[in-house]
Amino acid sequence: MSKQTLAIINEEFTIHAFDPHSAIPSQVLNSRLFFIGKTEDTLSVVVPSSVNLVSLESDKGWCALELLGPLALSMVGIMANLGAVLAKAKVSMFIVSTFDTDFFLVKADKLQDAVTALRKDGYTIIE
């Protein structure tokens, strides 16, 4: 499998946790880029840090890298390979996906470590 190209999204993100019965705040839906996940226990929202939300918990300081696609849903091992590279570099990641691509978020203070490790492993990174 050839290595993919990733683009750094030039924006900081915050991961929020809400009560699972909460309504999705309108400023989330009006944001240029957002991700939402819901389980019986929590409603998770990822938005640019410029979007001010009042949530139960939040974790600021994330940077996002987008796997440039589209990626077919049948493709296997992409995030596993990226995860192995980042794990070896001691960089944790938070993954979100859409129908045609994947995004992974790393803490801002680990972004350069992530970029260095991915480039060393043959990935192309667009800054």
In short:
By secondary structure, the protein is α+β, with helices and mostly antiparallel strands. It has one domain (5-126): VC0802-like (2-Layer Sandwich), CATH 3.30.2130. Helix content is 20%, strand content 38%.
Distance between the termini: 23 Å
Main beta-sheet annotation: 7 strands, mixed
Shape field? globular
Number of domains: 1
Briefly note the structural class of the backbone.
Answer: alpha+beta
CATH homologous superfamily (4th level) name: VC0802-like
- The CATH topology corresponds to VC0802-like
Mean pLDDT: 93
List keywords for this structure.
127 residues; alpha+beta; VC0802-like; 3 helices; globular
How would you describe this protein?
The chain has a single domain (5-126), classed as VC0802-like. The protein contains 3 helices and 7 strands. It is globular and about 40 Å long. Strands 1, 2, 3, 4, 5, 6 and 7 form a 7-stranded mixed sheet that branches. With 127 residues, the chain is of the alpha+beta class.
Write the layout of secondary structure elements.
Blueprint: E1 5-18, H1 26-29, E2 35-38, E3 43-48, E4 57-67, H2 78-88, E5 94-97, E6 102-107, H3 111-120, E7 124-126
Parallel strand pairs: 1-7
Antiparallel strand pairs: 1-3, 1-4, 2-3, 4-6, 5-6
